[in-house]
Amino acid sequence: MAATTVPENTTKRHAGRQAGPDRRATGRGPSRKVAANLQAYGFLVGAVLCFLAFSWYPMVREFIMSFQEKKRGVTSWVGMKNLDRVYHDPFFWTAWKNTAEYTGYALVIGFALPFFVAIILNELRHAQAYLRILVYLPVMLPPVAGGLLFKYFYDPDYGLFDHILKTLHLPQSQWLDSSHTAMISVVLAATWMSMGSATLIYLAALQNIPGELYEAADLDGAGLWSKIWHVTIPQTRMVLSLMLLLQIVATMQEFTNVFVLAGGNGPENSTMTVVYMIYQYGFRYNNLGSAAALGLFLLLVLIAFSGVYTRLSRNSDQDG
Amino acid sequence: MSRIGYRRLVAVALVTGIGLTGAACSNSKKDDSGSKTSAASAGTPLDPKTKVTISADCEPPTTEKAQRSEWIADVAAFHKLYPNVTVKSKDAYPCEDPAKFTAQLQAGTETNTFYTYYTDLQQVLDSGQAADISDYVNAKTVPNLASIDPSVLNVLKDGGKLYGLPTSNYKMGLIYNRKIFKEAGLDPNSPPTTWDEVRQDAKVISDKLGSKGISGYMDNSAGNQGGWHLVSEMNGVGVRAVSEDGTKATFNDPGTKQVLQTLHDMRWTDKSMPATPGLVWGDVQKAMGTGKIGMYVGAPDDVTTEVQQYHANYDDLGMGPIPGGKIALMGGNDYMFKKSDSPDQIKAGIAWINFEFLTVSKGQFNYPRKKADGLPVGLPEPFFFTGTAQDQDNQGKAASATIPVDNFKAYSGVDVPVLAEPPNAQKVYTVLDTVMSGVLTNKNADLDKLLSTATDQVNQLLAASS
């Protein structure tokens, strides 16, 4: 029987080849396929043109501009001059340090908090829908409006936060007005404004975890933290991993919150991020070549980070 | 999609991309030739028979009804003088948003006759957008040319060539709240003139009125506003921010340190400054307009903002000279002319600017009309006229004054020499923001270290800019 039986998958493979047209024989396969999908390509044209005009073309242009300089209306090639200029800018490393600090705080606060809020929401039996709306509500607020709201809250003279601290007889803070607390204040505001979206994504992932796993953990006598550590986190690892990558890439490009809340630089340049520095070069110093060069630095760092991260994740998946 | 399909798609994308890039590059390769006309014909006034259309920005917005109606009336009056010239106005508030302006310069979408700040000249030249108007401007086309302060015209020159016409200027001084001075028992007619006096008066105000949330003094520390204010303040005690040739920082000086020490002591020892320094433009103006501070360093046009936006009273506000009184930082605005303008468009633009901004008792100097429209008359700016034109302007202003001009006597009555903003001003201000925020947000700030670090940083930036 073993000698005469053709394995099922082999049969399917052969059947598939026989059923389909022989492309090499006719030579018309691709064009026929294109013709069959013409409508789909038609729908794609708009999106591709948009990407071309607003994403790919500016990227190519930015790359070219980072090697050019415009003086007296004449654009000339200057080699590495712009890259050298921004690298030797006295605030170059300050901006990178601040960006890393923002990303670090955003990971500790902005990455962990939505996950734990999602776990709590997932555990609730009542009013989950209302609370979900409540958590998502700040996302609907325009970022600038949210920033201005927090700027008022942080005011050491009239702000809500210091008023609460004072009422509770706790030491007050300078929030945005001190180089020690400005960045963390910006991160707190940014987390409040954006955690709703991440919470909903985590919640969706949590709801896909089979209940049997928790029941088994209960039978094994696992406690709350044990269940989170051994069931919840492994089961949502893909989502967590993707969100971590997206969050780091997004926070490395922070601009709006530091611009609105801390006037860009912040006290003693403590909130000057790389993207704010790009803005300074481009729109305050009118030096688009150097702005593009700094953008190129950021692009290279993000590409390198994404590459390493993806590689590590892949290795980790294979090990798992 | 098959491999062949991918290749085609990639080829199409590449060709399109290269085409677009090429177009973009060719677009940015405009030359430096400027408007073409002979010097002889350039110097003649616009022929009224010439049919030409120009666009001009900074028309007052609809929210400023009186100013807008005056502008529209002036455009109509100009059209009567030059029936073949059409002025297309573009409204804007503020007249220039620096980030938007930079983008406009890059795209070449500014109006034919466009508003700029004095500090914009280099960036407009680097963007290749300014027409050289040296041959167009003379006593025939701008009859008051000889009466315009040469130091103001010099700000708009580069390499001996003229690129703009001034429409306003200001010098920095000390804005103070007379009502608060009175309530604190200070003489509102004698504002402080030195930093020691500023500190004393600020302490009196905070001690007496601090319980009402009023502070004696306030300053900026971010958004390049801190650097701008610090340069004004060091100028007041006679210190220049950078050398005359713009290559070296010169602010690390005992005078600057003394100013910073005073600010530090006001903030941390006397507590006569609010815990929150001004972070962006508008913060100190709001605090003054709403009666929360006694003094700050600013320009006269802030007073209008405080009255119109924050409902302060002109009676309650006054100005004194910049503390120290040695040099007052001068700024202002002007109109430039787009490089792609035709000679007739440049002539028409100059005729319009002359009509609206440079003729005594006309346009912006039509004081009786301003008074009738309920607009403020009597502020000590602009002050770019000299000689007879200045006398006529002062007389006209005094005759129609609607604000208490005596409140500004201490400022305008003292002849403080003016100094234009330093080269690469915005870069210098960015660095000096750090010094100001260090002093105003850090009780243990090391002034010597802040100044020496900032000096190195400014020198680095200036070297990189050359």
TrEMBL record, chain A:
<dbReference type="InterPro" id="IPR000515">
    <property type="entry name" value="MetI-like"/>
</dbReference>
<protein>
    <submittedName>
        <fullName>Carbohydrate ABC transporter membrane protein 1, CUT1 family</fullName>
    </submittedName>
</protein>
<dbReference type="GO" id="GO:0055085">
    <property type="term" value="P:transmembrane transport"/>
</dbReference>
<dbReference type="GO" id="GO:0005886">
    <property type="term" value="C:plasma membrane"/>
</dbReference>
<feature type="transmembrane region" description="Helical">
    <location>
        <begin position="38"/>
        <end position="57"/>
    </location>
</feature>
<dbReference type="InterPro" id="IPR051393">
    <property type="entry name" value="ABC_transporter_permease"/>
</dbReference>
<feature type="transmembrane region" description="Helical">
    <location>
        <begin position="102"/>
        <end position="121"/>
    </location>
</feature>
<dbReference type="Pfam" id="PF00528">
    <property type="entry name" value="BPD_transp_1"/>
</dbReference>
<feature type="transmembrane region" description="Helical">
    <location>
        <begin position="288"/>
        <end position="309"/>
    </location>
</feature>
<keyword id="KW-1003">Cell membrane</keyword>
<feature type="domain" description="ABC transmembrane type-1">
    <location>
        <begin position="96"/>
        <end position="309"/>
    </location>
</feature>
<keyword id="KW-1133">Transmembrane helix</keyword>
<feature type="region of interest" description="Disordered">
    <location>
        <begin position="1"/>
        <end position="30"/>
    </location>
</feature>
<keyword id="KW-0472">Membrane</keyword>
<comment type="similarity">
    <text>Belongs to the binding-protein-dependent transport system permease family.</text>
</comment>
<keyword id="KW-0812">Transmembrane</keyword>
<keyword id="KW-0813">Transport</keyword>
<feature type="transmembrane region" description="Helical">
    <location>
        <begin position="182"/>
        <end position="205"/>
    </location>
</feature>
<dbReference type="InterPro" id="IPR035906">
    <property type="entry name" value="MetI-like_sf"/>
</dbReference>
<feature type="transmembrane region" description="Helical">
    <location>
        <begin position="133"/>
        <end position="154"/>
    </location>
</feature>
TrEMBL record, chain B:
<dbReference type="Pfam" id="PF01547">
    <property type="entry name" value="SBP_bac_1"/>
</dbReference>
<keyword id="KW-0732">Signal</keyword>
<protein>
    <submittedName>
        <fullName>Carbohydrate ABC transporter substrate-binding protein, CUT1 family</fullName>
    </submittedName>
</protein>
<dbReference type="InterPro" id="IPR006059">
    <property type="entry name" value="SBP"/>
</dbReference>
<feature type="signal peptide">
    <location>
        <begin position="1"/>
        <end position="23"/>
    </location>
</feature>
<feature type="compositionally biased region" description="Low complexity">
    <location>
        <begin position="35"/>
        <end position="44"/>
    </location>
</feature>
<dbReference type="InterPro" id="IPR050490">
    <property type="entry name" value="Bact_solute-bd_prot1"/>
</dbReference>
<feature type="region of interest" description="Disordered">
    <location>
        <begin position="26"/>
        <end position="65"/>
    </location>
</feature>
